[in-house]
Design goal:
Elements lengths: L4 H8 L3 E3 L6 H4 L13 E4 L3 H14 L3 E4 L15 E4 L6 E4 L4 E5 L4 H9 L16 H6 L6 H4 L6 E7 L5 E5 L4 H7 L8 E8 L6 E9 L3 H14 L4 E9 L14 E9 L6 H10 L3 E9 L1
Helix pairs in contact: 1-3
């Protein structure tokens, strides 16, 4: 690492620069996947677009690796690096909603839980991740499969524009009418084409939903999966669900003696007529013995 790298970061940037000598460095360098164990020279908690521009230019000047962390959930560990600079959006996460135009502008560090909270205040939503703790950036730039996808498309389908700092440190707006090639690349290309500092999304009239999370014994997986495949093929687009396999969590609606046991799970939402919510979920409660379930109305 060049000796003057850290002083340059601290002098030229407004956001906090966390280095190996700081007490919270060990926490700051961690990502969601604990199998990824890297040690950046510095983590920059950016306070705005100017900090992103500065960090990109300094990385270029010194020839060091640069990683971008939105929510930190990247399973492959792209949100960190060894010996380089991490641009961390943890402190840059505001969401602004325009209910008149049905649009929302979210900063690069926003997470789906915060985004959903902001848009729900206006009875609106867009397709987001399956986990509220996820950052909005990674899923959107990689496609973005969420509970509203059957009705409203992927997260990237609902992206209207993005503010991007590209490799030379210049700032651009990418949309269907401006820098169209960059906009095309962002919607599915991951974080390979620049640092997206903010996202503008199209919103849809989604307020309360009838959500379901249903756990089955692993022995009933085939029965559940075959029903799921057939049912979802003909279900209205207002019904969306995902089937998966998970260790039974320590949730209050699941028997404690089954916690940690591999199980088959179906999770999803109904966004149609509220009066139909329970009936829409009943077939999944009847298809096989249920270990535990949470089916209810919620934001």
């Amino acid at each position: 690492m060049p000796d003057s790298l850290i002083p340059q970061l601290m002098t030229r940037l407004q956001g906090r620069v966390i280095t190996p000598v700081d007490r919270d460095y060990q926490i700051a360098r961690l990502v969601y996947n604990n199998l990824v164990d890297k040690r950046p020279a510095a983590t920059v908690r950016v306070s705005g677009v100017d900090d992103v521009v500065g960090a990109v230019r300094i990385a270029q000047e010194f020839g060091v690796d640069l990683a971008i962390r939105g929510g930190g959930h990247s399973a492959s560990g792209f949100g960190t690096c060894d010996g380089g600079i991490v641009i961390d959006f943890a402190d840059y996460d505001r969401v602004r909603v325009n209910p008149v135009t049905a649009r929302a502008r979210a900063e690069g560090g926003a997470r789906w839980a915060g985004f959903n909270h902001a848009t729900h205040a206006f009875g609106m939503a867009t397709t987001g991740g399956l986990d509220g703790a996820e950052g909005i950036a990674g899923p959107t730039l990689s496609g973005g499969i969420g509970y509203l996808a059957r009705k409203y498309g992927l997260s990237c389908d609902n992206l209207l524009s993005a503010e991007v700092v590209i490799a030379d440190g210049t700032v651009h707006t990418a949309s269907a009418i401006e820098n169209e090639d960059l906009f095309w690349a962002l919607r599915g290309g991951g974080g390979n084409f620049g640092v997206v500092t903010s996202f503008e999304y199209r919103l849809h009239p989604v307020d309360m939903v009838h959500a379901g999370v249903i756990f089955y014994s692993i022995d009933d997986s085939r029965t559940v999966a075959e029903f799921y495949r057939e049912h979802l093929a003909s279900a209205p687009k207002e019904f969306s669900a995902f089937l998966g396999f998970h260790l039974c969590p320590a949730a209050s609606y699941l028997p404690s003696e089954r916690h940690g046991e591999p199980m088959c799970v179906v999770a999803g939402i109904w966004i149609g007529d509220p009066a139909e919510g329970e009936a829409r979920w009943q077939p999944y409660l009847d298809v096989a013995p249920v270990v535990g379930a949470m089916v209810q109305r919620m934001p």
